[in-house]
Amino acid sequence: MAERKTFFVDVILPVPINQLFTYRVPFELNDQLKYGVRAIVPFGKSKLHSAIILKIHENAPKEYIAKYVEHILDEQPIIQRYQEYFWTWISDYYMAPIGDVMNAALPTNLKLASETKIQLHPDFDMQTAELSDKEYLIIEALQIQDILNLSEISQIVQIKTIHPILKKLYEKQYIISVEDVKNKYSPKTAVYIRTCALFHDKENLNIVLGELEAKKNSVNQLEALLIYIKEVEKNGDFILRKTLEENGAKASALSSLEKKNILESEKIELSRLTDSDGSIGNFKALSASQQTALDSIRENFKVKPVNLLFGVTGSGKTEVYVELIKEQLDQGKQVLFLLPEIALTTQLIQRLQAYFGDLVGVYHSKFNQNERVEIWNAVLQNDASKYRIVLGARSAIFLPFANLGLIIVDEEHETSFKQYDPSPRYNARDLAIVLGHILKINVLLGSATPSFESYFNAKNGKYGYSELKERFGNVQLPEIFCADMKKEFISKTLNGHFSKFLLEHIENTINSGKQVILFQNRRGYTPYWICELCNWIPNCKNCDVTLTYHKQSNTLKCHYCSYATAPMGSCANCGSNKLSMMGFGTEKIEDDLSFLFPNIKISRMDMDSVKGKKSYEQILHDFETKMVHVLIGTQMISKGLDFDNVGLVGILDSDMLLKRTDFRAVEKAYQLMSQVAGRAGRKRERGNVVIQTSNPDNWVIQKVIAHDYEGFFKSEIIERKNYFYPPFYKIIDISLKHKDIDILNVGAQTLADNLKEVFKERVLGPEFPVIPRIQNYFIKQIRLKIEREAPEKKVKERLNEILSKFRSVPHYKSIRLSVDVDPA
Ligand code: ADP
Ligand code: ZN
Ligand code: ZN
Fold it and tell me: Fewer beta carbons under 10 A from the terminal one: N or C of the chain?
């Protein structure tokens, strides 16, 4: 018999504390000890957590009596060894607890905690399920109670350690986390309805309609059938059953029609995003300039691990990526392809799936956790048959790749690579470079409007640099015009928020059979109401912001918290009933435009519209198939979309984009305008762009018109240098929040004073940010500007000392502190 040694393990727990915890291992688990496996351990008051084992040793902790490990969950490690180093790096650099990093890294289903709520998987079928006795008990409990958390289940089934059983149930896809179902679960199958063959013939269909009409008790069936016919006119003859029901068809009536063999239904597999059939498509031959860019990237990679590809919009960067991906796959390597927001790039997913079929996996919080775990395990085990290329939003940087060969970061300038909340506040583009360094692999950054940081590094020779300066097929970049809003105001040619110039362009474009995209970076109807007499403006009661009017729901909403209220009839200050609406959002543009052009089809894409009935994919599909003439949208429409029939892009309120005051405002405005403009005339003919502005001479607008990124960069970089901003200086923002403004003020000042003792004039503030109160918390900010050359580690050590000293003062304990390194 093996020796009964007493072992201890050091684990990471998914809690916001920056240390490892030591647990004692009961003898019977000795054989199962392994680096990187999950251990179920008690933490806090009777709570169980899944932790990850990082060290196995024989040293009892000195400061406390170690609790026992309850169970070991995995036979094989769930992370790679290099990830421990990577996570620690992130924790140090972003000044975030290692537990936060673990939390950000692992998909929910890999970190079951006592509070995790679960329910039966929507596709669970008792008839076909294979269950052990214990599994049966859990399933039974869930059938009775719907939703249970882990502690509850444990009590009901009288088993203390239920994690291993749950793990099996997850794997079999019998259960699912509630948070998945709420906003992320998308069913894999859907029921579609069509008429039976006999009634494809219009006359036969008319006969049936006549028959139904004649019978008194078939009113519902008649109605259901008419709804179906109406849908067919719009969407083809295979209609989602749910759509019919949403439009008023009674479920029972549909079933009766099926029984009568008038309608038939079919359950169809919806592959998650597209109907890729798994076959691999034909690759495109590269143009000469694409080939040159590709050659340049390959050459550069030999000497510099990071390379920036500056490719104008529509230049065909994707095809270049595809070649590089192919090369990696041939060598048996995995590829990580990071994208700003997956939901916004279905088109790209389709293109890559057409090339690589099932080798492409998509990793995104929108998908359900079981799928995320599936991808996690596949890349961990180096599965050769699937997910060799992972397309992912920022969190995909945490996947446990076993054999990664290349990381591509597309649209690298996008701020959505940055995570704001919760901590760790990381930037996935920057982490890609760190990971590339750890794994000694290449990283390709791509953009038509590079971030200042990346362009600066490329120009300075830190990164390699390659260009793709013409559009594919030699289509010219769009021609950009200004509509002078001031002039049109004086000449009285404005029509609401539209200039005559833009309206004429819209009309001409539509008349010539082309489509239009209109960009307004504000959702809702009107951003605020104002009393004409006393200038009173309705504000959120929890935040210091104006309420935005949403016409569709007829409410005033706060975009920073969930507060919503019915519109008031009169001024709360002076009682006047003369309230006027100021400003405009996408909803109002849609409204006004449909009034001006009653005969055209308009659709809208913003956070409100994609949450509603029409999904993101549907809106894009309708526009792609030219069922819609004009697409109105927020910055959701600015990224990566590739339509071939857009003749005109209109930017409605460029003044607003240029009004922001933070140091990146100008860079962002340039990027946004160029990117939106880049949606115009991508194939064959040159497109047009109209920018509405009251200041056509504005230098940023002039640079956008000239497609002169280089010139833009050259002037703006001087400002950055003069005012001590990135890329010359590193910024660390510290924000303090409290409900009591006095405690906050005193605390913030004290902390700033403490910081100044060490960091001197590098400390700015404390100051109230633009929105000084959100969700009833007042906010103050302190900003540190640190020289790029300063010793990174030392700076953060000193900063950490000061912060933990501040935190330990009882009076300030209730102040919420957060640190943001490299704010976006
Ligand atoms: P970018 O991402 O650089 O804005 P895309 O990769 O979307 O540009 O390419 C623009 C369009 O040109 C796409 O519709 C793409 O299919 C097409 N295209 C690019 N390169 C080629 C090629 N080598 N052969 C055929 N079509 C191409
Ligand atoms: Zn008033
Ligand atoms: Zn609010």
Answer: N
3-state secondary structure 116-128: CEEEECCCCCCCC
Provide the whole-model pTM.
Answer: 0.82
Instruction: Quote the ligand 3 centre to 565 CA distance (angstroms).
Output: 11
The per-residue pLDDT for 689 is: 95
| Ligand 1 pocket mutation, candidates 294, 312, 319, 351, criterion most atoms within 8 A of CB | 319
Closest-CA residue, ligand 1 atom 26, reads 284
Structure tokens at 166: 């749950």
| Cα-based angle 787, 793, 794 (whole degrees, multiple of 5) | 75
The protein residue whose alpha carbon is closest to atom 9 in ligand 1 is 316
Concatenate the DSSP letters of all residues of 299-333 into one string. HHHHH-SEEEEEE-TTS-HHHHHHHHHHHHHHTT-
Q: Residues with Cβ < 8 Å from 742, sequence gap 6 or more?
A: none
Q: Exposed, middle or buried: residue 664 (CB in 10 Å: 0-12, 13-18, 19+)? A: middle
Encoding tokens for residue 340? 């700003």
How far away, in angstroms, is 319 Cα from ligand 1 center?
6
Give the pLDDT band (50/70/90) at residue 133: confident
Check: CB of residue 105 under 8 Å from CB of residue 438.
no
Determine the pLDDT at residue 614.
Answer: 61
Q: What tokens appear for 818 in the block?
A: 């957060």
In sequence order, the 6+-apart residues with CB closer than 8 A to the CB of 711 are 703
Strands (E), 420-462: 442-447
Q: For residue range 345-402, what is the model confidence (pLDDT) as tens digits? A: 677 888 888 899 889 998 876 656 667 888 999 999 999 998 999 999 999 999 999 9
- Between residues 229 and 432, the one the model is more confident about: 432
Which residues are in the CB-under-5-Å shell of ion ligand 3? 540, 542-543, 558, 560-561, 563
Average per-residue pLDDT for the chain: 88
Tokens of 220: 């519902």
Higher pLDDT: 417 or 581? It is 417
* Confidence bin at 188 (pLDDT 50/70/90): low
Residues with CB under 6 A from ligand 1: 284-287, 290, 311, 313-319, 472, 642, 682
**Which atom of ligand 1 is least distant from the CA of 644?**
14
